[in-house]
Amino acid sequence: MSDISKPEDQARTGGSFLYNQGFRSIAYQVLLGGVLAYLAWTLYANVNANLERQGIATGWDFLNTSSGFDIGESVIEYSAADTYGKALLAGILNTIRVALFGIFFATILGVFMGIARVSKNWLLSTLASWYVEICRNVPVVLHVIFWGTVIHLLPSPRKAMVPFEGAFIMNRGVVMPFPVYDPAYPWVGAAFVAAILGVVFLNKWAQRRREQTGQYISTLWAGLGILIGLPAAVWIAFGAPLVWDVPALRGFNFQGGLQLSPEFVALLIGITVYTAAFIAEIVRSGIQSVPSGQIEAARAVGLRPSFIMRYVTMPQALRVIIPPTASQYLSLTKNSSLGVLIGYPDLVNIGNTTLNQTGQAVEAIAIMMVVYLAISIVISTFMNVYNRLVAIKER
Amino acid sequence: MALPTERPIPQAPPDGAAATADTKPRKRGRTVPPPTERIPVLRWARENLASSYFNAFVTAVCLVALYYIVPAFVEWGLIDAVFTADSHEDCRAASGACWAVIEEKHRPMFFGVYPYEEHWRLVLAVMIYIGAVGMTMIRRFWSYRILVPLWLFTLTSTLTLLWGGVLGLSAVDTTQWGGLPLTMVLFSGTIVVGFPLAIVLALGRRSHMPTVKAVSVIFIESLRGVPLITILFVAVNVFPLFLPQGLEFDKMLRVMVGMAVFFACYEAEVIRGGLQAISRGQYEAAEALGLGYWHTMTRIILPQALRICLPGIVNHVIAAFKNTSFVLIIGLFDMLTATTSVLQDPVWRRFTVEAYLCVGFVYFMFCFALSKYSHRVERWLSEDKRF
After folding, report:
1. How buried is residue A120: exposed, middle or buried, by Cβ count under 10 Å (0-12/13-18/19+)?
2. How many Å lie between the alpha carbon of B170 and the closest alpha carbon of chain A?
3. Secondary-structure class of domain B102-383 per CATH
4. Which residue in A102, A127, A208, B294 is deepest, having the highest Cβ count within 10 Å?
5. Nearest residue on chain A to B330, judged by CA atoms?
6. Cβ A29–B350 below 8 Å, yes or no?
7. Nearest Cβ partner of B325 from A141, A348, A365?
8. Helices then strands (H, E): number in chain B?
């Protein structure tokens, strides 16, 4: 473009280099770079001067000093005597924990609601669309503090609600029975992972065979058999150990079992319900994006409904669904930072406490930002890989 | 369309109700009409609620769920509820919802800590603002000659009413602003500051100059990767450190700029999508006409690109409105913060849920209306390419 226009330009303007596109482009860039460098330098100088005047030490030494505050719940062992660094690590793990659970439940609820919205059943689709409209048009902040309030209005442990035997819902959170740890469990877990790999290979083999011979082999029952049978066999080989740790009311509180704090439950419900409404819309638009001619054509060549779903509708719908769903997962993770509102000890909550106690605002906020950026990059990398798997294969 | 004359004119069915199935002329003997119910309601129910066994089962499950949920809610929210109360004792006595809490606390909920006797100014400001929004939504007023003066008037008059200090109005510091007006100010500020920035960032990301492009990409991607909370923390805690001693910015202004920048990064990506959808021919045609970069962009490319990505733009505008509620974390008294702090009052604390439902309803009304309106605008645009 510039190559062609250059000679004429120069001829018309008497050859002034000011009108040369290449020169202008470089000049603009140098100007922008200079302004940014100047800004960065001034800001840095100002920050240093201000911190010095306020008597705040810079640097990362505070990470190694004792924090002196306790954390309500933590995946790792933590006490007030531990360092700020460990407190922040506990916060990061809490963030990851609530985000993983949130992504899991939001996907299930969102996919269900999205399919319900395109259902032929008027009642179901109407209820689902009400759910979507109500939940996504209310701020997520309100969702979180609403559930945070509701959970504290639940009955006390003594009058706790019992959804099923051994589980209790109350204002101190949710408790439910949980198997006592046994050395066999890691092996069962490993067997499950092996079973998943086995099913993947089985499917690959069946697909290759189908493509070569045109013969269809149903892998459904064989796959389910491997998926359930292999871990079960390992479990039985270890003598089928299973002891339930059932929560029991002692004094004012429940002991034992799986204990979920009210803050965790409220935050999880809040971000799940909010994000699921968006995922439902994405799933709906994905399903509706498949032209009805495709499904009619599949029916015309005599495919079974389950085949149409699996080989015609889903592969095309997933292409539309996955990229926006990935960004919903990201925003769910970022919204988990709202735990600070209801006292869930996530990264932002602990970072905020650290900031207030040490006064090292720049460092504390930098840690938060870098960790969230890292989580974002990890999630988007995973989703990009998955997206590439389902994307159109150009031949 | 008129029926061909050689066909027999269909006889009116004897009972008038089941008109559809039998009106078609039967040419060859034994065409069996599709099974239809004679009563329209039943036919509708069969088609939409019980077209198959599975469908009927789904309907049954939904009805059972509704049977458990709806009566309980009606009982709580309407039958046993208290709508007006002389004191909180009336609410405590009742087993249902206490909507009286809204009557009792609506002033601090919607107007925050703004001086009580000056609340009329806020009412007036909100009315002017909503009137301006309403006028902007009407298609007939879509011209610069009307909208620019309208919004200049709206912004100056509402800000004058809020700030005071002139025309005999007492001055009110921004730290005392609160409630719905603060939500409005934050929202408008976010859009007014953020939207032009979004366009600049989107153009920057599409620029041929490597430095400009790199700066835009890094800026957009790094801000999109962090939660809004951390940006608000930067605005509140770190930004004052950036300034030389003695220079200070209003906290509300800093928060607003933070939100605007966050909004701009998301909106920039939407606008970039629109820019990418414009075909090369448009750029080449503009160049052939001898238009410079800015003329090409403002006259040819952007009007088309913004129209293409209008749904995405509106989604983020709605998100920006909802995001104003994040100021709860850093202690600005918007509608939600005001409600939360008002209900620290031990006497009324039990009825926080009712107050939150009310606030949620206000947010819902605005966002729902905006999204429905944006669907209508899309339809206008698709009907009529030139407006």
Report:
1. middle
2. 33
3. mainly alpha
4. A102
5. A341
6. no
7. A141
8. 18, 0
